[in-house]
Every structure is written in structure tokens, then in C-alpha cells.
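[Q] Does anyone have a clean C-alpha cell version of this?
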Amino acid sequence: MLKSCGRVSCANRTCAPTIMQAQSLNCPNCGAAISSDSPQCQYCESKLATAACPSCFGMMFIGSRHCPHCGAAAVEAGPATLSVLKCPRCEVDMASIAIASEKLRECARCGGLWLEVAAFENICSNREEQGAVLGGASPAPSHPLTNSGNNIRYVPCPQCRQLMNRINFAHCSGVIVDVCKGHGTWFDRDELSQIIQFIRAGGLEVAREKEKREIQYEREQLRAEQLAASPRPGAFEKYASQDERIEGLSAARGLLKFLIN
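[A] Here you go.
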């Protein structure tokens, strides 16, 4: 359950991201009042797309210089130079863009994003780069996906072409991403923004504490079994493995490898 402050409730062990609602905004081109979910201004006919303010999370139209809610400066994505890869869904060439210090690839057709392992780790651990991602969204895709819970499709890694695993990020975020452990993560449109909202709402802390409780429970169960009988083969190795997991959970970068396992 989300509290009124927007942080994740640990007591109820849930940590789904907040869903942004449509708001009344002003067209960045003519100034007319338009709903934030409108794809086009009905007055000047400019195409519109929204992004989240990196400071207050309020919605604003791409092209606005400042957030209409808090006045923070807007952030724009710039060009980058990366090798050309195919979109795992559309099989068209993805464009390279730079947001803050991170370089990533974006599909203009479906709006999906491909982040290599290091780039995703940096975004998960760096608040400034999270804000840049939230404020640097691209216009609506020309062919948006219509996902259905009954139409699950596994997609290949753009680099090694092996089918990727579908993972619930942090095991409780509700955001299902496609992961190649060796190369990176594929995000359908808006999924990366949802994960950043989840992180900023305290979701990683909830996931970390949940993982620690589960590890502690497993260790207590092993101790109880050892008291009842001789140690099972491999029990001490399992203790060592659990110690490594606890150490890894102490840092955001270490936590990431557990969140996508």
C-alpha cells in the first residue's frame, strides 16, 4: 500500500509504483489548456507527449522549459554514438541517445529502451540520473504496443540474440522487464520510468529488507535441522552463499544482481 507521501509501505510488503494521472497543462507551442493525455493540441495541432518532472514528478509536456508545478528546469535527451542494434520487438534499428551521463538505445517505432548492464546499475543508484530519465521522455511512438496479459512474448537480446528472461523487477514492483544477464535489460515504453518511481518511493529498501528476512529464515531453518540431525552435505556452503547475499544487499549496485535473478 502506498502512503500519502508516496513512499512504499513496508508493513504490507507491497511496492507497486504510483500511476500518474492525467492533468490539465498548457501547450508548449500556443499556451492553450490541454489534458496531459492528449496526443495533439486541438488549437495549434502540434503533436504532444508528456514527461515526468525530475523534481516533483508532476506531468509536463515535452518542449516545456520548466515544470508548471514546481518550476524546475526540464531535461532533454541528446544524441549519442553507440553501435546499431535491432529493437527486440520491432526488428528495426534503434537510435542512440544520451540522458545525463548514460547512453542508451531507443526504438522510435514502439518507444522501448535498451540499457546495457552498467548503464542500468548507474541509473538505479544515482538520483540525478533518475531525474534525467524521468524528465527526458521521448514523444509517443508511431506504433505503440498493445500489451495483453494473455499475449506474453519472449524477445531476444539485441546483442547475443538469445531469448531473454521476463523478470518482475525487485520481485515486488509489478514491472515486468526482459533481462539478458550478460548484456542488459529491455524496457517497453514507460517501464523504466515506472521502475524509477518505484525506487524513489522506497521500493529497493523494501526489497532489501524482504530479502534479508527470507535469508534469516532460511538460516534459522538450517540451524534447526542441524540440531535435530547431523549437518546435511552442502549446508556450510549454503551458509557462505547466504553471507555473500547479505553483503551484496548492502549496496545498490550489489542489490541489482539479486533484483534481476
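[Q] Thanks! Anything notable?
[A] The chain has a mean pLDDT of 73.
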